[in-house]
Amino acid sequence: MHYSLLKSLFPLTTTSKILTRSVAVNAAGVTNTQNLKPWKKIPGPSSLPIIGQMHHFMPWGELNNAFSVEFGKHLYQKYGPIVRFNGFFGSTPFLVLFDPDCVSVVLQSENVMPIRPGFQTLTYYRRKKNKNNQPMGLLADVGEAWKHFRTVVNPVLLEPEVVRLYSEKLDGVALDMIERLRRLRNKNGVIQSPFDVEMNLWSMESVCLVALGRRINCFDPNLPANSTERRLLNLVHDIYKTADELDFRPSLWRYFPTRTFKRAMKLYEEQENTARYFIDRTIDELKAKGGTKIESEKGVLEKLLDINKEMAVLMASDMITAGVDTTSIAMTATLYLLAINQHKQDILREEVMSPEGERTYLKACIKEALRMMPVSAGNARETTKDYCLRGYHVPKGIQVTFMHQVMSQMEEHYHRAHEFIPERWIVGKDDPMYYGNANPFTYNPFGFGVRSCIGRHIAAVELETFLARIIENFKIEWSGAPGVVVKSSTLNYIKGPFNFVFKDV
Ligand code: HEM
């Protein structure tokens, strides 16, 4: 759900902490808009009759590379901190923000039942299936239905005591992956398998442990390529690919069921059925073990099953959709930045190898990686009221994108912004590097407020455990010049080349 620039660039309808800040809600909407500069006066690309601003995004247009961070920078440089788009082919107009003060106004005001434009085909699928007005899950529901679902699942997924139950098991996943990486290394330390796929396998295994209450052993070398376990991983990718096409680009599926749309419906159904299949297996195993656990020993799935099975299936599907690619991208980015910053890696290794401590530097490395190479370009909200932003009238029903990736790389917010400096998350207030000198709304890797990432604590344990194990086992180097290709669509996919060299410590 992930909530990229793309989504807000091509919205089709109006419906729709590791570092999460807690900020008081303020109702910053305006009632009298007469004295404001009109919406149409907000700077933005020029418009032509019928096609509007579409031509700018064509291969010959100034915004052709629409999904990259360069695109964001270009918009900012050319039009400034607030940029208007009219929408295309009747789609909702939208606004792109590079001003953290404006971001804070919208995010704080839209913090009761926030609408995050997102997987509209998933909402369509679940609504169609849902004959009795049952909940549709966090990724698909809005309004009171979303609020109710979230209120019920928050104490399960965000409760530190529950998350802590997974530390040991996630460490088991990490150690298995370390063994797998060892086996995949050639004599020069190069991993003989696509690195992004390997990281996906690790994150899939980790999130399934929580969502399905079991190890699915998806990186077992003996697992057949057509196994249900492997299929689950492919499903996540296929879902993102089709959602990218249908939800986040102009598409005709709203007018008639296109081929891709029909495929998306099948994918959602298959993913739900697969989650149900694994959950049923877990239920059988729990029954076979007999006895009921005391409350404090129950994991996420067991707690959700106590509430109701359908909720457990929906939550598991959403956790898998939202928790696989995101976490693997974050891990790959962190490893890449540590590989090209050997000195920082040495400091981290010293911390990891020393007897139990707070692991402050490790956490800082992850935070810094999420600043420099965030999982998505930004986040978005639909306005439910009128706003005054930089003196302009921003009406209700507009999709607003917050360009966190660009903002968190601006020198005006972060000193030496283009350098990987984990220390900025640790040093005190008097140090010019101190992260708190930046407006907190420049950096929101897990989103904001009541609708922020519900898996953030789980993601933190996954990332911290695996990173510590990698650093303890391997010295990661990078052969050749630094640089990776990042293909930004729904998420910022790191496409390699993966010039990692894994040496024994
Ligand atoms: C580094 C890894 C991750 C990142 C960067 C990330 C980021 C995000 C972001 C930015 C949002 C939108 C928040 C908002 O609109 O304010 C979100 C929502 C969500 N995330 Fe994550 N996420 C990660 C891992 C996970 C994991 C591991 C899970 C599941 C265990 C998960 C489950 C979800 C769900 C279900 C939502 C929707 C919440 C709602 O709408 O109420 N995420 N995530």
Description:
The protein is α+β, with helices and mostly antiparallel strands and 505 residues long. It has helices at 5-9, 69-79, 100-109, 120-129, 143-157, 160-164, 167-184, 195-211, 228-247, 259-289, 300-307, 309-323, 325-339, 342-353, 360-372, 404-407, 456-473, and strands at 82-85, 94-97, 379-382, 387-389, 392-394, 399-402, 474-478, 486-488, 492-494, 500-504. A hairpin with a 2-residue loop joins β4 (387-389) and β5 (392-394). The protein is globular and about 65 Å long. The structure holds protoporphyrin IX containing FE. Protoporphyrin IX containing FE (HEM) binds next to α8, α12, α13 and α17.
Q: What shape does the CA trace take?
A: globular
Which structural class should the secondary elements be placed in?
alpha+beta
**Biggest beta-sheet profile:** 4 strands, mixed
What is the radius of gyration?
23 Å
End-to-end Cα distance: 37 Å
Total helical elements: 17
Listing every helix as H and every strand as E from the N terminus to the C terminus, the arrangement reads HHEEHHHHHHHHHHHHHEEEEHHEEEE
Mean pLDDT: 89
**Low-confidence runs:** 1-26
Residue fraction in strands:
5-15%
Helix proportion range: 40-55%
Write out the distinct hetero groups bound to the structure: protoporphyrin IX containing FE
- The quaternary organization reads as single chain
| Biggest sheet, spatial arrangement of strands | 1-2-6-3
Total number of β-strand segments? 10
Protein name: Cytochrome P450
Pfam families: p450 (PF00067)
InterPro entries: CYP11_CYP27_families, Cyt_P450, Cyt_P450_CS, Cyt_P450_E_grp-I, Cyt_P450_sf
Keywords: Heme, Iron, Metal-binding, Monooxygenase, Oxidoreductase
